[in-house]
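Entry 14. Two folds queued back to back today. First construct below, sequence then structure tokens.
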Amino acid sequence: MQVTNHLINMKKLILPLLTFAVFMACKNEQQQNEQTMNYPAIPVSYPETATQDVSDDYFGTTVADPYRWLEDDNSEETGAWVKAQNAVTFGYLDKIPFRKAVRDRFEELFNYPKYSAPFQVGEYFFYSKNDGLQNQPVIYRQLGLDGQPEEFIDPNKITAEGTTAINIIGTSDDDKYVAVSRQDAGSDWQQIHVYETATGKKLPDELRWVKFSGAACWKDGFFYSRYPEPAKGQERSGNNMNHWVYYHKLGTPQSQDKLIFKDEKNPGYYHYGGVTEDGRYYILYQAPGTDGFALMYKDLEKDGPFVTLFEGYKNKSSVVHNIGTKFLVLTDIDAPNYRLVEVDITSPAKENWKTIIPESANLLQGCSTGGGKLYANYLEKATDRIYRMEYDGSGKTELQLPGVGSAGMPGGKEKHTTLFYSFTSFLYPPTIFKYDVPTGGSSVFQKTELKFNPEEYVERQVTYNSKDGTPVTMFVVHKKDLKMDGKNPCVLYGYGGFNISLTPGFSTSRILLLENGGVYAMANLRGGGEYGEEWHKDGMLMKKQNVFDDFIAAAEYLVKEGYTSSDRLGISGGSNGGLLVGACMTQRPELFAVAMPAVGVMDMLRYHKFTVGKGWIPEYGSSEESQEMFEYLKGYSPLHNLKPGVKYPSTLVTTADHDDRVVPAHSFKFAAALQQAHKGDNPVLIRIETDAGHGAGKPTSKIIDEIADIYSFFFYNTNTPVKYIKG
């Protein structure tokens, strides 16, 4: 297996999901013109939220937490509060006259086949496909490239509600078996099951209480990471500890699994890894959280001890491939933009490293292997470039992508001669390309067909200066003939954290905004990974305010340049991006008409006390580590910066009852406090989805409902004329 790809996937799981960006749109049969709409205010009567005399002492400072009781997601009181809030929210949404038409239009746009890039297992190729409106994608298998596709696993047949997500997370060395993860109702908790590749027969193996894990196959079993079974009632909010590595032998019960690695001195650390393609080494990553980590390896042939190759936890070094004892390692050591080095584990001192790909001015975002070749993915101004070369770095040639956008790297085993990669941009629907290793040629394998004419729109990248003068890039998308008169509805999206890069990508939901004369903007804020590790560090810990300053400056730029105005501007973001929206709407409430924080981290003083929140301490810091850090966190924590009597933007908070990444208590407490503090007739509502989690695996029906509600709320509260367009 490719250890680097596994590491990237694990990092995405542990992070607050950047999830799931928020969207916008609407309708009106007549041609949209310059007239200003004035939708009547919809009266709102908020439920009364009880307060309690609860407080904490931080270095001599008392901080009240009157809504602490909402942290108990199992209590009858919290359940009644959720029901009451949803009644108000959906009562409001029901009164928006174009809400159903918005939903109908989005369902029409969303109803097209969606494919993943295939990957090879023996003689078979596997991929997932959603016919259009299926709640979950179906996993298909076909014999050879010209074989007839056959249904392998259909998650939609497991539950009538379509809330079960299935993903292939490992394949056996002999290609006879595939391991799959099952996640129910959006939870991060996984079950692992095993299927025969050729027959699709499900084996009796079932592993539970798994999180943030792949299945690293070796011989007659696989390595995986799990937690102990949580206490009853604490499954979704309890503090997860002791993330240890086990080996499961096929055909045996989980109770007989062998403990491979534990660290009782650091029970909050994460452990995950994979087996090198030659089956010789197990590579283990040990991470206090979402930033730096240590790297260890174990010689499986000799059943040797774990040997530390890279100590933690200041840097990030990951194994891409190995040639015997020589490991190809992607590292940021002495290279904030990353480089690829060859490290011989028999003489691993830094002076013995051999540079394969030197650091450059552009971020070396990742490396992969397949067909005996090495592939390097660079990020140049937040857009992808991919190069192929030999294992020693020679013979560098660029893969010719169809444009400027985002691409997935080719990847596979050394024996594979056909690989696949994807490409997309804001105006280029996702397309799967087949890559022929012997010739180096690419051809379209699966093209997205939908009713959308990209020639009517323009995408561009602009640069603006943040508060401290730092240049920041931003993507802007809109109709070609749009007037820059400040009257356009605009959605500004951001994330700004955890070294995550925001690059161009296609979204049918965004069409709703664009076809109604809207502007979509996405800023590459500090804290992200677009410009290397220094860019990331400039937006974390005691520099987190830079992220909010960058986002506010992006909004000011859009207003100044005539793209929009403050009464037509909405801001959106999810998870860490929800924190971004919460912080900016409390710091500059007059700048935005609408705020849409999704599954946000809103309580910066207590976030580390729930599920996997402690893993974000390297990014945010902790309120308990020092008075200075406590004061800094309190200074921007959205929950703690709401002020009574302030007119805040029209706000629609979104969360889900099964979110065990960023627990819904963040959104519950923030919404309660916002309703109490807010002055004015702007609605401040919370929409709480049931049987859903942080975003991953959300069924299509719930996605369509939620996006339609968010768009309807945005357009109604920006007085935007909405035209209903039928394809």
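Second construct, same run, same settings:
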Amino acid sequence: MQDENYDPLSIEKKWQKNWEQGKKFQPNESEKNFSIVIPPPNVTGSLHMGHALEHSIIDVITRVKRLQGFQTLWLPGTDHAGIITQLLVEKELEEKGISKNDLGRENFLKKVWEWKDQSGDKITNQMKTLGMSCDWSRERFTMDEGLSEAVINVFVSLYENNLIYKGTRMVNWDTKLKSAVSDLEVTSSNELGKLWTIKYKVGDTFIEIATTRPETLLGDTAVAVNPSDERYKELIGQTVTIPIVNRDVEIIADEYVDLDFGSGCVKITPAHDFNDYEIGKRHDLELITCLDFDGNIENKDFIPEELRGIDRFKARERIVEMLEENGILVSVEDHQIQIPKGDRSKTILEPMVSEQWFVKTEEIAKKAIKVVEEDDIKFIPKNWEKTYFEWMYNIQDWCISRQQWWGHRIPAWYDEAQNHYVATSEADVRKKYKLSDDVKLMQDEDVLDTWFSSALWPFSTLGWPEATDDLKNYYPTSLLVTGFDIIFFWVARMIMMGLYTMENIPFKDILIHGLVRDSKGRKMSKSLGNTMDPLELSEKHGADALRFSLIEKANPGQDVPFDEEWTVSAKKFGNKVWNAAKFVHLYTDEQTSLVIKDVSCIENKWIISKFNDTLSEFNDLFEKYKISDAYKLLYTFLWSELFDWYFEFSKNLFVDDTHKVETQSVLRFVFLESLKLLNPAMPHLTEEIWSSFNKNYLIDNEWPIEIKIESDVNEEIESLKEIIAKIRNFKSN
């Protein structure tokens, strides 16, 4: 029997336990196949509103496919989040007065694994609270044994095919992490800074040069002017003296220089600026580093002793003072500057020349571009293809090494002469390169970029490099649901790695969702105080209410300006469905056999016709991934057509026996079939109601099909509704 009152929390806990114990989320055999992998949340994380939106979209799609008879796999897992996890554990140790260097690499990694074992399932449990129907028996972690094997195998394969190399190049350097970081892990903020104009001596005269980073003049190796700049044509090829270090360098001509910015003269520091680095390569300039990897001025003979070893920003202050003392600081102006910061550390990054491991991306990117151009992979909405292509056509080699301890250690070993050897293990190195046991080998200290292992996620989670049944059955996956903000980080790299390793696309469709914003359209952030905790919302209003309020607003590619009132309204809707079920029980429980045969009553024909129309349009919208529109449509049908109009019509039909049994059958059938449509968005509520009518599980049932009726009666009933509405309006006025 159905309880009198709707209590979301007790229902939700009950069904989460029942589904999981009954293994209801594991795939059933079918000729049709649907598979999807979760965008793996960080193992350090807690569920936020973006996760709640993304997971709700995936879960609704998965549950619909399951009811439609697909062999359905939603594979869950978490990412080891190399940088943020190491930072978190280091912070915990520092609070106890311990540094990672005190422990050493091996003992520090033991501490990280201990933390993971204690706290790593937090986000998984939060997902379960919201009713996500993942196959938890297949849950993966990017550092588990199987995925680690996949990472090592792909690295070695890429190296053997000359697609991975070790080289010295300009990278973004994080002085807090003491590591290189990817271009995609850089956040740029527009801030008010300073523009210093400095006099550089040329013979008996001076030229003026403006800079936002005066400390880098210690590493200047040229001054550049535009070759078409008439002011400086005679100076090209002459020497100019760098202030403070008094080094003579050449004045060169390069079209990179903007004639209209500042004086038209630009200091060139190839070792500490990305643009200068490219100019340096074109003109074969010397690379002079003046900063070390801690962000301090290097201790070199040509640098004044008072500057050596001090922090870069303190050095900036002292250099400005020295310029003033020498009478060569022309001016200081306020200036808007793009400041690059580490996404994780929030530290101002330094462009640094460093020896790192890189993936050559040009060739594998061409194939990844082609599969999207030829619609083998489709972006939904399609306009996100443009974003993808813009990046892919201008792709740079991918720096994959990180100077961290937590992560997949690079499978490269060095002998005493620093020759490197790449293989899956030290034993394989010795065998592959025919090295005797006398040759001492040391493994590379660096680990791989976290996004490297994530790029293999669609096939590594299915068991590759083993030829597993899961790999055979579920790769390529059917769909990827993700945010636009990781198209470069993750989506593009999965496509490239899937095509390289599996020689097949990793997924067929990419459904892009927007960001969850506050009700004013602002991005949620702790500093604004406008963040919302999905777990708190689900505790207050129920997980079903939260899911439905997100799904109803989740148009592909569009941001969701969220308001808690939506969840309040969704809970009221859930209560309406609960009370509707009590109505159906009241009028139909006396009948033991409720089979729809010949429908003669016009009201019954009308509601069947309305249900058929709703089902047909719902299916059409869903196939186009217009999930929000599909559930808005269902909401209108349930609230207005079924619960309002038809329930009122049916009361009159129960007065005598002429249409009573037929109406009981139609009422119960249409209500229960409608529950199936609502179930993917509000699974706990609908399963509870279903169980009060049936002995089987709703999750084990089949998707509705249209009910055949002979004639179209909508016009007659719509006229009746119009008359009744006018009477109601007249009475209320």
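Quick look at the second one. The longest helix spans residues 627-653. The chain has 24 helices and 25 strands.
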